[in-house]
Predict the structure.
Amino acid sequence: MPTNQQRRDAAKRKLERQLARREAAERARKQRMVIIGVVAAVVVVAGGVWLWTSRGSTSTASSGSTSTAETSSTAPATPCTYTESGAAAKEVSPPSNTSPLNTGAVDVTMVLNGKDVPMTLNRATAPCGVNSFLSLAQQGFYNDTNCHRLTKSDQLNILQCGDPTGQGNGGPGYTFASETTGSETYPVGTVALANAGPDTTGSQFFIVYGNTTVAPSFTIIGTVTGDGMSVIQDIASQGVQHNAQDGAPVATATITSVNVPDGSLDGTGTYETTTPSDELGTGSVDTGSVDTGSVDTGSVDTGATDTAAPTETAAPTTETTTGGAG
């Protein structure tokens, strides 16, 4: 017959086993929550990537910032860098002027369905983008091409053009960085360059004809002027094929040419030069410890995703506006 001490020892061991099981279950629960949080985050990020790379849509997923070490930054060798990327949909050369004019505006005329669509391009806000657009237009890249995408939704109403293949994945064989401030809005009449993510801007562009709310990730090169928007609105009014919200327009949308003034690529802009230095100005890199505190596993908003923004679809590499690299 067990003694009182033996009974107490047995009870103690049982309690210890119960506590150990509870601790193991709690650790497993916390691990599951972290995994769920990570998976949800991946889903959100993946959604953002899809918006960048799907045919014609691009809106970046926002992500929380993490405390990291300050690192030194180096200014690019030239104000505009046009990097070889993929095969060109039409044989063209990148702009030879990598320090283009960065003040003033230039007026061009796109002939769409045989009608003039005048546009004023702003060199001051997007010198590299305007320079590329003018160069491609002068080389005939946009001649006899169809605008491949029309969207009609509460938050995205654009006509997207600039891919000679008409498939949404064609570009000029080079890409360059976006010129944005993070505060861009896209009112009716805006002409902006599509992309497939950071540093993937190319030849594709879109014209806003209705309410459009997308991330400020697309370089605005100018606006449609005069009676140009009536031409765009006429195409938009006929809708998207198959009664879809995003796809090829029902109406013909053929660019015959984009006419630019003589000498529009001439001239050199004045740019500030930046001496490489660390952001702290002390020459040393802050390698302070990173906060690795507990992961917030709160609920993730998995609400409905808005219609994709302009995007270029990568072909090897492509544009998308609300999606495409242009």
Observations:
- The helical segments are 4-53, 127-138, 228-237.
- Residues 4-53 form the longest helix (50 residues).
- The longest strand covers residues 105-112.
- The domain at 83-268+307-321 is CATH 2.40.100.10 (Cyclophilin).
